[in-house]
């Protein structure tokens, strides 16, 4: 939970290298987390041509630096443990787009929906800047009771 101290078992790197991938060392530590922020805005054209819908969105998210306070300060010096880049603050500006076609009508309610999406990171710090695209095929089943 942000702003509250949390004691748990963490993988910590007691060396000056910036990795925890190959470091098998774990120890108890108190984590001090900063706040996570997320906001977004979108526009949507819903069923503007028969079942065709489009969405375009922008989002901003950020997370403050996390610091660890190890219990065993001999094995895990606090200065070295907190140099890890996975604990650093980060932020991301992202563009989201989506196009969907809904084959359902009032007469034919059990028809599929097909959706394609694309997500593109516009800018950011300490994030993976990889665009993501994909699709979705679903079916709406309706029953009258």
Describe the structure.
By secondary structure, the chain is mostly beta strands. The protein has one domain (5-139). It contains one helix and eight strands, in the order βββββαβββ. The chain has one helix at 78-81, and strands at 5-11, 26-32, 36-49, 52-63, 67-70, 90-102, 112-125, 132-139. The strands form two sheets. It has a five-stranded antiparallel sheet, with no helix packed on it. The longest helix is centred in the middle third of the chain and has 4 residues, at 78-81. It starts with a strand and ends in a 6-residue tail after the last strand.
How many β-strand runs?
8
| Count of DSSP-assigned helices | 1
Q: How much helix, percentage-wise, in residues?
A: under 10%
Structural class: mainly beta
| Rg value | 23 Å
Overall spatial form? elongated
Question: Main sheet, how many strands, which sense, barrel?
Answer: 5 strands, antiparallel
Assembly type of the chains comes to single chain
Share in β-strands: over 45%
Task: Strand order, main sheet: write it out.
Answer: 3-4-6-7-8
Strand/helix succession:
EEEEEHEEE
Distance between the termini: 44 Å
Low-confidence stretches: none
Q: State mean pLDDT (0 to 100 scale).
A: 87
Number of domains: 1
